[in-house]
Amino acid sequence: MLKGLTSAGLGEFKDINSFIKLASRYGFQAIDTDSEAIKCFIESEGTAGAKLFLQEHHIEIVAMNLPVEWRESEEQFRNDLPKLVEAAKSAFDVGCKACTTYILPSTDYHSAQFMAVATRRLRTCAQILHNYGIRLGLEFVGPHHLRTAWKNPFIWDLQQTLDFIEAIGEKNVGLLIDAYHCYTTNLSNESLTKLSADQIVHVHINDAKDIPVHELLDNDRLFPGEGVIDLSGFLRALKAAGYKGAVSQEVLTATAPTEPIEGLLEKSQKAYTTIFKKAGLE
Amino acid sequence: MLKGLTSAGLGEFKDINSFIKLASRYGFQAIDTDSEAIKCFIESEGTAGAKLFLQEHHIEIVAMNLPVEWRESEEQFRNDLPKLVEAAKSAFDVGCKACTTYILPSTDYHSAQFMAVATRRLRTCAQILHNYGIRLGLEFVGPHHLRTAWKNPFIWDLQQTLDFIEAIGEKNVGLLIDAYHCYTTNLSNESLTKLSADQIVHVHINDAKDIPVHELLDNDRLFPGEGVIDLSGFLRALKAAGYKGAVSQEVLTATAPTEPIEGLLEKSQKAYTTIFKKAGLE
Amino acid sequence: MLKGLTSAGLGEFKDINSFIKLASRYGFQAIDTDSEAIKCFIESEGTAGAKLFLQEHHIEIVAMNLPVEWRESEEQFRNDLPKLVEAAKSAFDVGCKACTTYILPSTDYHSAQFMAVATRRLRTCAQILHNYGIRLGLEFVGPHHLRTAWKNPFIWDLQQTLDFIEAIGEKNVGLLIDAYHCYTTNLSNESLTKLSADQIVHVHINDAKDIPVHELLDNDRLFPGEGVIDLSGFLRALKAAGYKGAVSQEVLTATAPTEPIEGLLEKSQKAYTTIFKKAGLE
Amino acid sequence: MLKGLTSAGLGEFKDINSFIKLASRYGFQAIDTDSEAIKCFIESEGTAGAKLFLQEHHIEIVAMNLPVEWRESEEQFRNDLPKLVEAAKSAFDVGCKACTTYILPSTDYHSAQFMAVATRRLRTCAQILHNYGIRLGLEFVGPHHLRTAWKNPFIWDLQQTLDFIEAIGEKNVGLLIDAYHCYTTNLSNESLTKLSADQIVHVHINDAKDIPVHELLDNDRLFPGEGVIDLSGFLRALKAAGYKGAVSQEVLTATAPTEPIEGLLEKSQKAYTTIFKKAGLE
């Protein structure tokens, strides 16, 4: 598995180049980013230059966010599709092979109808991405408070997301598995071992406070190793499932970090070393 | 449009042959039936004999029910699929080109997850039927009491069903439009005119008591012309949409009819003549 | 059916506005155009202005060409997809609901493999268009000389194209039926009557010289009524199939016309009147 | 990887029970069989009995043939589909998760059109199998003489088959990779390493005579280790691609073997041990 980073929890980066340099300096091999950043990266460095920059820093861009609002009006969805095709092309050019989006656990729309609409929309996104060799990873979101944040319940656990993926029915759609969401849905590591490698598009890690599970907030996460989640067990389970991709840190917090980024990255580097070792990963 | 009959409201028939004979005698051109009856029909008459019998009586079998339970366990669904393939083959052999199923407005399953599961299952059914040139018609069910008959709301109106059809995503899936369900969901005839002909797989007519719409029960329907639904307007709207298929009477009632069937059919025949004439249909 | 025009055979137009004005002046109700022209139209008039201009001239844009090269390298295909999404959005904005592409009857690629590749690529195009309510019409190309113009035979007749459409498997894909290609593949009008309306996305008419069918060249067509094709029978057959869309004149010729455009349009207007009348169309 | 057997090259077995017993006795862990044999197995042993028999002999049924003729008439295809659903259900009941079919390199049909038809038909098969958790493996067939055995060329190499799989477009379709076909299409082991594990449904091994590649006949194969194919390199390449499934021996020969089966199996067992060891597989 590759050690990866998202910028969440690390504060703002001047540009993707800075992010890549820092990720590289602290021993990471991969980053997640957004499609806009990839576009700017290619505009400033050229396609060849961007690829070279990544190579020189031994960093892969392993995932970008889905630049399409699929949860609101049909008009907005339609208007966003051109962005997706452009993003897919840029991602293809820098070797990024995954695109991810999260599923909010509740919705102001009618639950069943919204599932039908979302199925069609994400299918379209997957179909476009497939032409650029990019997979779409769907992230279920576990924290309990979000299940009632909007009027009607939607979906939030592994099995529901697998059913959603089957409804979409495209071969390049799979899971983005996030340790926080597994923890907040009481998903056992054993359940993860039963997945097949091709069902997993991407993985996020982070940690949870030692409070009752149903009180955990989505944007109140800890850095890996600082909380109560058995992250080694989590990675061991994913390894058993055959997963060989990247594991990116994503620490959503209510406020920006106050520590300097170098300190945060050093901390993360150490945590990754410990967790990977304990999980039997090199 | 063809004048059609289901057996609902008419009582039991000894066999499909009797049904065909009576439908023919009272001026109907089409019947709906179930897949089991088609199977028995072919077993008793042979394929050529069955087709000849239909021809001699100027009757087409225009629709059969979907012989698959797609609303319960995965095991039951899996076990029912062989029946579907057999039924599709038999339907093909007697020229039946539509298969229909109704959607219950509520469910004991989680609404959004059940929509995902139902999308996949009905897609499979549609894919199998497509190989036999058979379309799948989905019937939304309007009566209000059924929206809370099970734990969670599912779907019950036109737009929701169109979204469901898009989620399924197969070209041979469309609507079964039933006058009672249009009436109980306050669907205007103008909305029907905006459909395109290929979105409509089949049509049912019947009538509603003169009580508040939200009090109408699903199995308390009247014969066409005996209630308050503007059936001529309904057919005129479907004609404007380009629909040219069959319109079958379906009168669900709580108890079996007490009148002799000949009387019921004579009544239906007259009602059809009146309604078709008023709708400008020959 | 709507009387439509493509610019083929009429010479160059300054801009789409001129084309619309002339089409309107000579009694036409629809035009085909290319996606680039729609884009310029919207850029110069604004979306609202463009729609108003069309309304004022009682003209609909009924078809645009597919702005994607799906017959060559994967790279070119990938690079063209962003253009398709932009074109689809523009077409949606001016109410254009069909996109068309022609199939060359031979290919330098391996025949069977190219069919597999083309199936996937056109499926992607159809999927994108579907989100904008646009159908994709595939035009088979009949002239015999093109069957050996490249190394290996591909497809050129109705049944092959229907099989191609089934392989693509998307609900919004159908036929562009061109009178010249029907004539050069000896397709009977009776065969056309057996199509269903939803299989036909668009129709082209033109005429053929009185020489042996296998000698007819693709770019040596005549104006409707000047040759040997029974165009009234052709339209009658399409009417019998339920087709209600536009019929656009497309006269491919080796050299630009020398007559002034007004004369050509007057000629076409008269021919359309005659042919439509004889076909029983108003 | 599991050591597997097909019956090809071993002669006739009285029943699947005998095959399972012998496979087990000679150190194999898996067998391929046909759907008819699975059906008889379940009829004679019951589902629970069949599963127990397999468990007691430490044998998995890893693949069955596709019981559908997809290369001939539409009628035959339609008539075979019920068999497929029954076979899928039986396979599901005994834990068999792959179904395989081979692609003949030439056809009496029009090449491109046949590809379109085959794409639709195999898509239907895949869709049915998917509901039972079964994958469909397509086997390209390399021997040169078969490329001209029928009128028109079809497909015979890896890339063509991958394009076919993409045209089919279902997530549960992948490759059956056979060492003989890789050898006769000059496919390098390096090319195999570039596949991803989920593209490979099943693997066959066998060996080739030391004659020019283009002279090798399809039904003139040797037992593993007796010919010139680098089978260890082949398996090492598949391992590098992440393949973890079964590798079944398939020795097609013109005439039935004359040696007693015990001798043949002992020979195969030894060959497997040598090849697996050399490939770094336990």
TrEMBL record, chains A, B, C, D:
**Residues spanning the membrane:** none
Name assigned to this protein: Xylose isomerase domain-containing protein TIM barrel
Q: For the Xylose isomerase-like TIM barrel domain, which residue ranges apply?
A: 21-260
Quick one: signal sequence residues? none
Key words, A-Z: Isomerase
Q: Name one Pfam family in it.
A: AP_endonuc_2
InterPro entries with a match to the protein in the record:
IolE/XylAMocC-like (IPR050312), Xyl_isomerase-like_sf (IPR036237), Xyl_isomerase-like_TIM-brl (IPR013022)
